[in-house]
Amino acid sequence: MKVACNIKFPPNATGCNCKGACWDPKTCECARLNGSDFPYVQRDGGRLIEAKDVVFECGPNCGCGPSCVNRTSQRGLRYRLEVFRTPMKGWAVRSWDFIPAGAPVCEYIGELTRTEELDSISENNYIFDIDCLQTMRGLGGRERRQQDGSLPVIQNVDKVDEQRLENVPEFCIDAGSIGNIARFINHSCEPNLFIQCVLSSHQDVKLARVMLFAADNIPPLQELTYDYGYALDSVLGPDGKLRSALVLLSHFTWQIGRGKIYRNLVASPPMYKKYTRYPLYHFLTQGN
Ligand SMILES: C[S@@+](CC[C@H](N)C(=O)[O-])C[C@H]1O[C@@H](n2cnc3c(N)ncnc32)[C@H](O)[C@@H]1O
């Protein structure tokens, strides 16, 4: 991940004192942060048991080694992913390999940037808001934003603009000019991946890593998708009018009055819970 020069990256967390690999949730400090348990099981090289607000992994200062189960998302690509062309959606991604539910698929990589500094002129389809903090605090998860009445009743565009900007996450990942395969993964309302915020070196949720995990067992060559997190009828176009969901999908990032770029991808973990067709123990008892 490239970090914009005006962002002070947090120092490494103290970590746990486990040796070799973490196995006892009662003594592991990192397990304690996850609610006194490990978020992953060892099977298939590590699978996430269930979607969480944020996953605390072991990091550089932990006593355990690279094979520790609590470093599952740090081991790079496991599956042979392919970028392919679709008739209607441009580029897309699929895997040549079977992906089991709960397996980490890839991280959303790009330049870590302050949201306010996004270029308001050029269109950029590859921006991912890091929204974990809002969700954890329960202040501004996207669904809550909708319920609190700020959306979608649009009467005074300026007022709505201000309300929304208060909820805009401070940091985002801009994969417009630098990125990895995650930037080619398309949106679906019935996705087979979900977003999971992960903290591995530091503990600042505003700068959490954004990981994509399998929401289900995914057969080879099935297109990989996740929910971009748009709320229906929540998007204003440059003219201040609501954009339809269809238009919205062809304009990943868009602008509203006063040249500000507004809303793009949103990581809102509780929403993704509805797409995880497991806790993993379900799959484990079914034999896969
Ligand atoms: C992060 S990019 C995904 C990769 C993109 N298809 C490409 O060719 O680079 C997001 C853009 O892909 C397109 N897209 C993603 N999901 C789509 C969908 N379900 N239907 C139509 N277009 C989609 C939209 O143009 C969107 O702005």
UniProtKB/TrEMBL annotation:
The keyword Lipoprotein does not apply. It comes from the Eukaryota. SUPFAM superfamilies: SET domain. Residues 14-76 form the Pre-SET domain. It is found in: Chromosome. It holds the Pfam family Pre-SET. The keyword Iron does not apply. Residues 79-229 form the SET domain. Keywords: Chromosome. This is Uncharacterized protein. It comes from Hibiscus sabdariffa (roselle).
